[in-house]
């Protein structure tokens, strides 16, 4: 079973509390999501492998460490996942960015892929899938499935807020994918919104509520 990592860092929790408030405007909401995403990916990448290299400082030569292993790819789920991209790129500027778009079929209620553009070498990268809200888990699980169908296997899921139902679904369908969240909330309501949550992240991010 995949692991669930919940970040309790005071800065993350403080900024998330402001985002949750209904009176927080879209400008501040965007800025906070950007900041939290950067703080979260710092922890998400804590176990990246390193290798010893020799460099020359202005004083002498020395042995130090640099990143090794697979390069990073970030895959936001449209549209709210876009709000997490810049914060991560600020920390990992060489990461390549793909995009995946889904909609729910009104008849079957199943997620349908309408857009997917991944880096050409995605199967050789450590991929980080981004979506602020992990509610039912349907979109995240489907996005990961579509990415795997393209030959990718090294995948991590990063969400701002998750519901237990969403975590359970992703773990059931993708037991190899670890989940990283800033908060795991109480439940879903009858409309599929996370409680207490923060409302519709996409609407609040882009001012379309």
Summarize the structure in words.
This protein has 209 residues and is α/β, with parallel strands linked by helices. It contains six helices and 13 strands. The strands form three sheets. Strands 1, 4, 5, 6, 7, 8, 9, 10 and 11 form a nine-stranded mixed sheet that branches. It starts with a strand and ends with a helix. The mean pLDDT is 94.
Q: Which structural traits does this protein have?
A:
single chain; 209 residues; alpha/beta; nine-stranded mixed β-sheet; two-stranded antiparallel sheet; 31% strand; globular
Write a brief caption for the model.
The protein is of the alpha/beta class and 209 residues long. It has six helices and 13 strands. β10 (155-162), α5 and β11 (178-184) form a beta-alpha-beta unit.
Return the structural class: alpha/beta
Q: Report the mean per-residue pLDDT as an integer.
A: 94
- State the order of secondary-structure elements, H for helix, E for strand: EHHEEEHEEEEEHEHEEEH
Number of helical segments? 6
- Helical percentage: 25-40%
- What is the gyration radius calculated from CA atoms? 18 Å
User: Major β-sheet, in short?
Assistant: 9 strands, mixed
Low-confidence stretches: none
- Count of β-strands: 13
Q: For the terminal residues, how far apart are their CA atoms? A: 37 Å
The coarse overall form would be globular
The percent range for strand residues is 25-35%
């Amino acid at each position: 079973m995949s692991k669930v990592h919940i970040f309790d860092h005071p800065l993350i929790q403080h900024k998330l509390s402001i985002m949750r408030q209904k009176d927080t405007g879209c400008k501040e909401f965007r800025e906070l999501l950007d900041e939290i995403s950067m703080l979260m990916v710092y922890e998400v990448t804590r176990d990246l492998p390193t290798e010893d290299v020799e460099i020359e400082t202005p004083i002498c030569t020395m042995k130090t460490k640099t990143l090794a292993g697979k390069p990073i790819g970030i895959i936001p789920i449209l549209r709210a996942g876009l709000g997490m991209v810049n914060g991560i790129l600020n920390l990992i500027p060489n990461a390549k960015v793909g995009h995946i778009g889904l909609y729910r079929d009104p008849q079957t209620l199943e997620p349908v892929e309408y857009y997917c553009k991944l880096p050409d070498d995605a199967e050789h990268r450590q991929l980080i899938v981004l979506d602020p809200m992990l509610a039912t888990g349907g979109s995240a699980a489907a996005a990961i499935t579509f990415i795997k169908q393209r030959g990718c296997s090294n995948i991590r899921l990063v969400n701002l807020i998750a519901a237990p139902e969403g975590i359970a679904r992703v773990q059931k369908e993708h037991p190899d994918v670890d989940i990283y969240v800033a908060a795991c909330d109480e439940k879903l309501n009858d409309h599929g919104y996370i409680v207490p949550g923060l409302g519709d992240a996409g609407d609040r991010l882009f001012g379309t509520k």
